[in-house]
Structures are given as C-alpha cells and as structure tokens.
Amino acid sequence: MIASVKRYGLLVLLTLCLTGCKVELYSGLSEAEANQMLALLMLRDIDSEKQVIKEGNVAIKVEKSQFVDAVEALRQHGLPARRTESMNDLFPSGQLVMSPVQEQAKINYLKEQLLEKMLRGMDGVVNAQVSIAESVSHNRRETPVPSASVFVKHTPGINMQSREHEIRSLIQNGIPNLRAENISVVLQATDYRYQRALPVAAKPPAWWLDRKLWLAATLGLVISAVAAALLLRRRKKAS
Fold first, then answer.
1. Which CATH class name applies to 1-77?
2. Is the terminal CB of the chain with fewer CB neighbours within 10 Å at N or C?
3. Burial status of residue 160 (CB atoms within 10 A of its CB: 0-12, 13-18, 19 or more)
4. What's the CATH architecture for 99-189?
5. Residue range 86-101: average pLDDT?
6. What separation in angstroms does the CA of 34 have from each of 31, 55, 102?
7. Upstream peptide bond of 80 is cis (omega within 30 degrees of 0)
8. Biggest alpha carbon distance in the chain?
C-alpha cells in the first residue's frame, strides 16, 4: 500500500517538474523590444515571460511546446527587428582615411538603412529592404546615375498595392538624382509557414492552466501526507 502511494507521489512530482518548462527564445534584446514581443506573444495566447539578464540585455522565454508558434508569430510581424548601423559605427573616430569609393559605399549603406527603417514604420509592413546602386563612370565629372530596388513584405490583410506610389515617392525623395523610372518595387504578402493545431479560442485560458498546476500540487501534498500517516501508523503497530 505504502509503495503504491509512493509510486503515485513520484509520478505527481515528475509531472510538476515537467509542467511549465520554458526555453529561451531570444536574448540580447532591449527593454522596449522585449515588451513589444512579449505583448504580441500574450495576444497569441503563447505562454511566455521576459528575463532581465543585465541592463540593456533582456531575454524572452516561452513554453517548449509553443516554441514553433512563438517563432512564427514574431516572424510574421518582423520581430526581432534587424539592428541598424549608425554613423559612428561606419565612421568611427580615429579611422584611417578611406577612398572616395569606400566613403560613398558607406553613405549609400546608411541611406538604405534609413529608408528601410521608414518603410518598416508604415502600417502593415513586416520587413523592408532597399538596395542602392550607382553607375560606374570613368569620367569623374559625370554624376553617377543611381537606381534603387525595394522589397517590402507586408501582412496579408493590408492592401499595400494602393500605397506603392507613396513608397516610390519616399525612395525617390530620399536619394538625390534618382529618377522615377530607375526605381523597382516588389510587394509580397507574408505567408503562414506554420498552422496552429487548435485555434486560439479552443485553447484553455491561462487561469485554467494555473488552476491545474495548483490542483496537481495539492494532490501531491495530499498523497505525501497520506503516505506519511500510513507509515506512522505502521510503525505504531510494529511497536
């Protein structure tokens, strides 16, 4: 009898240990970005939490069984955002003198990042990439002719085609001497790579999961108390 009770008690304790097992999803995040990601995961009913490792370094943890859901939910919203380089990163103090070609390449790279950041600020844009190219001329007096390629990935529910003119105007005004005919824009809706097995409404709410955890813990305590009482009673009979 006592052995059976102990066996059931060990099973309950093992269940408690396995319940709530979280794995790290992303780390090295800022406080603002971590809060944004955490809010999105909570809206998707994904069990998640943030952990402050040190100042300026925050990690997001999710339930192991919901890891794929979490990655896909964040990917569909362009999170975590790609880090952009600053002027100080590309032109640090004390750097050796670079050639005009290298300097122009870095300036174009900064322009690309700035334009990408502005495009990602538009409603419905998940990710944006901008590439600036300039024609090569052997005559230094000739002004290079720039061209720009733009790729925008957006959420399926947004009619981004109606905003293509705004995107072209933004790119043209952000790059000097750029002509409208030298701008190419590709708009693509985000595809859903992973379909959840159950809709959000069909999943049990968080309070029910907490209640189940408390019930399991209470059951474990009751079984332990019963086992202790039976053991004490057996010792009294033996004495």
1. alpha beta
2. C
3. buried
4. 2-Layer Sandwich (3.30)
5. 65
6. 5, 13, 36
7. yes
8. 109
